[in-house]
Design a protein that fits this description.
The chain is an alpha/beta fold. The chain contains eleven helices and eight strands. A hairpin with a 5-residue loop joins β3 and β4.
Length: 363
Amino acid sequence: MTKKRRMFDVDLPDDAPLPGDLETKSALPPRRGPMATAIGENAEALRRRSEVEAEIRAENDALAHEFVRLKKLGLIVDMIPHEKVRTTKLVRDRMRTADLDLGDLKASIRAVGLSNPIRVVPDGAGGYELVQGLRRLSAWRELQAETGDAAYALIPAGLMAAGETMETLYRRMVDENLIRKDVSFAEMANLARAYAEDGVEDCADLDEAVNRLYASASPQKRSYIRRFAFLMRVLDKVLEHPMAIPRSLGLTLADRIEGNPDALRGLVGALRDVPRRSEEEEIAILRRFVAGQTAPLPEKMRGAPKGSSRRGRVSLSVPVGPGVRCTATQGKMELRAEMDFSTLDRARLEAAIEAFFRVLGEG
């Protein structure tokens, strides 16, 4: 029986070279099964997803820090419900009974919107306290009441970071209106009186209140505010239109009353004799009172009133060293000099303070 020859039996010597174009199984990379391929692709997808998530977190962190920075600067503006804005945290420098003259402002809002947002600070309970923009808020609310337009339900507001001191909030409110130059001396004086009476940020007296609130104003203007504060104190309950009092009339009136206190009763009576009077009538009564005071005025009185029952401010320049200045008020003495007091020996500093009060006691 003949043995059947197998096909493709090729006998090659072990050291025979293979043709260059001949592919063999051992020359190929190892083949991966479907499961291994799926696992590898899934791992690559997870790695890429982790990278993307890390990039997103980094971007969110950067945006959050930028948001906090802008919020601290009061540069974040949002649309907030105007009914959630309260005006009770600060004593306003505009009288509540004042005619805010909102006609032109409302017309402007209708035409181009509110170009200058109000400024508020969150109250921590879902609402807001107004810092700047009483006229704008009032006009916005009147427009919604008049038109019923839902577009006026939300008002543009600059969101200030919580935590600012009361003194800073008052300064923001006051400085805005000082720039606008539409707040009367009577309103500024009444705000300073309320600030001192409430003892905001441990304010000691009216003089300090004026210096804090109106630090951006000139010394002369602060002096005028103090004189009007005196005038508002003695005529607070009888004046009906204090905002209408011109500066010159108010200053002269304060000087006349302080120079002749006995005449105050006659002025109060003259004002009460004309109830429900107009601005013009009230100003006429005040002018007649001033004209009727013929006694010469005492030495020019400006600044805080002097006397045992009144508080004043004295500024001194002491020639004992470079740049030494001293300011004295009721219960407070402030020294300024071009030196670092914190570097002085404690015992030496205490001895200097003791000597200071010892000399005052001997005087």
